[in-house]
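Researcher: Please translate sequence to structure tokens.
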Amino acid sequence: MTSATHSTLFPQVPDSADAVLDGLDPEQREVATALQGPVCVLAGAGTGKTRAITHRIAYGVRAGIVQPTSVLAVTFTNRAAGEMRGRLRQLGAGGVQARTFHSAALRQLQYFWPKAVGGDLPRLLERKVQLVAEAAARCNIRLDRNELRDVTSEIEWAKVTQTVPADYPAVVAKSQRDAPRDPAEISQVYAMYEQLKRDRTVIDFEDVLLLTVGILQDRHDIADHVRRQYQHFVVDEYQDVSPLQQRLLDLWLGDRDNLCVVGDASQTIYSFTGATPDHLLNFRTRHPRATVVKLVRDYRSTPQVVHLANGLLGQARGRAAEHRLELVSQRERGPEPAYTEYADEPAEAEGTARRIRDLIAAGVPAGEIAVLYRVNSQSEVYEQALADAGVPYQLRGAERFFERAEVREAGVALRGAARAGGNDSLLDDAQGLPAEVRAVLSTKGWRSEPPAGSGAVRDRWESLAALVRLAEDFERARPGATLSDLVAELDERAAAQHAPTVQGVTLASLHSAKGLEWDAVFLVGLTEGMMPITYAKTDEQIEEERRLLYVGVTRARFHLSLSWSLARSPGGRSGRRPSRFLNGLRPGSAAPGSRSAAGGSGGIERPVAARRKRRGPALCRVCGRTLTDAGEMKLMRCDDCPSDMDEALYERLRDWRAVRAQEISQPAYCVFTDKTLMAIAEAVPGSEGELAGIPGVGARKLGRFGAAVLDICAGGDGVEEPAEGEEEV
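Model: Translation complete:
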């Protein structure tokens, strides 16, 4: 039996409830028929999660088990909500509310505001940037346009994480977040922004959620009204829920548990906006009786693409990695992923364009091909290469390079300097075309070193840096070229890329590619410093970069190409290295922690997993059931089986871990995960041998933390003298 994530344009409406279940695989059918109580669907990429949850809702409606008007399905984009509504209509389940969190909250707020507060709902502020700018001015803090965008994003992050202005600096420090300005200044601007909103009786997008939460908390009669209306809830992309959205969901639910959540912790790539997979990972803890279904049959990608995706996550660390799903492709075999090393960036772009042209000639539609990169500024060289190759393209989630505001401003400045010639004092000390361009662009925010962190300021710098590199390459190709020559070249390039939007090859950042898929995907620019990005410093940030690459890999159905370049420009120093995430995956590279090279393209050798297989299945030490969940295997018992854990010991271990993690400036799970601490508190080891036998305590951690853990288990406080050089870790 096969299943698919696609349907025909006008499918026939099923003639009965049982017919709704036709074509579902066993796991999807289990989701569709689990209509009571909490349900957690762990759905890997390409496994038909939308199909499973829409058929679940439709089956309940068609069988008369649930009323369509009693169901609220929420997701994160209007596109996803619209797709869900369309599928439900096709299944004969019209009348179900499928909305984004904000849309559902706004609808309730508009309805209940007159009763809860009185009068009309305050006007919704569609663009908060102008008000943030005024708030900054009142605080005597000057923000340029890009800093303004970044500070606005920080205010949005603070609100969805329920951080008030006074607490913002401390929360930023604790979370190791890169703030675009001094946190104390942002706190001032944030407080003034909130005051201005109150003075003018306006609310912003985040207030819609906050005010709905406030009304439902304060007015039990209104909360009861909402709960009578909606008795069944479905949440898609649950790994992207923010603390504020989870609070709203809890209020919608009340003391009921008819909740179905769907997500994949391995696709958490929006933590910078406040999204967290913790709610998904903790679902079974909050709902011990939950039905948990894992969707791992991948209907999107070939076995070769799936093998690479599994190998990529096989190297992951951290809590999300402990819950990763091993996908199993349901498609016929396809070509191996191609790994290509180029001498420089232009060669990589030209080589990519040639391969795309060959694919189109072989019958792959241009609209089924995508080039994905880490940051939007990488698009320019691919825009040019595809234009030169006569391949139509379209940008997704970003302006065309020459249409970006900073690039247009830079063009005006360069054009003015070219007209002024020797009369422009900016160029007095500049020798050569690249130096002249650097001098002009320095007035627009370019510096030799990139700004710290991400956001609009970094994006602006990247765009200006691309123009500097273009000038360097132009002079290398045309020695003696003047600033006027470069301006003419820029005008020609801009004109060539101002053609009407066509259905062509998609150019997109990895973030904007989430939720999409193509027959052929080219992942480009996979070098250290770009993947992972330079400003990803902590282990958690590095792991999110790995997940971002995983999302890119799993966008491909059939053809997958991964490439990198050794130098930025032709003739440049070849000092770049391929992304660390490809170690053990690309041919000839050694797996992390292994002395052997990878056995073949698209795959990865994992010696640790092989040894586990030879030991046989892990069995629960209480009931004897075979264990498959990584967390249960650490405890060597089912989550549902009784625990003999020493609670006091567990709390002492947690306190010690918090202190130790702070000392070494690492997240707590890098010392030991919660599950490992629970296993230690259950086993209470008395020797190094007993401690080493607990899953999650490897040789390295045994040597580093073993003495302290054994001391705590024996009743001590775990205080020890640091090993030589430990302060430098």
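Researcher: Any highlights?
Model: The mean pLDDT is 82.
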